[in-house]
Design goal:
The protein is mainly α. Helix content is 92%, strand content 0%. The chain has 1 helix and no strands. The longest helix has 131 residues. The chain is rod-shaped, with a radius of gyration of 59 Å.
Amino acid sequence: MSVERWDDARLDALGTRLEIAANIAESNVRMIQALTNVAVEAREERQQLANTVERIGDRMNAFDIRMDALGAKLEVTANIADSNARVIQALANVAAEAREERQQLFQMMAEKQDEIRGLQTENRRMLDILINQRNQGDNPTN
């Protein structure tokens, strides 16, 4: 092993290199700290995004439940509408039958009125005949 002598120039150069290495190390520490801060912020943002995604998932589940409930209500409403349509059709059929029956009744009433008028006319003739016969029996001079 040989012994070298350290002169001032060499010591100054070594000091400068050590100072540069210390500055680099200090810069690396700051960079590591900045990267650590960025990593922490990224982790927090990831956690916030995960929370947001979870809330969106919960909202989607709630939305699905609401949609299922609305679908069931829509089905009930459709069944009611179908039932109402059948009732309306039945009522329309009954109304049509009632109209026909009423028309037939009016027709029968008109026929009966004609018969009654005919009977009234016949009764008047018979009454006139009877009155004439009575008058002739009371007054034989005619």
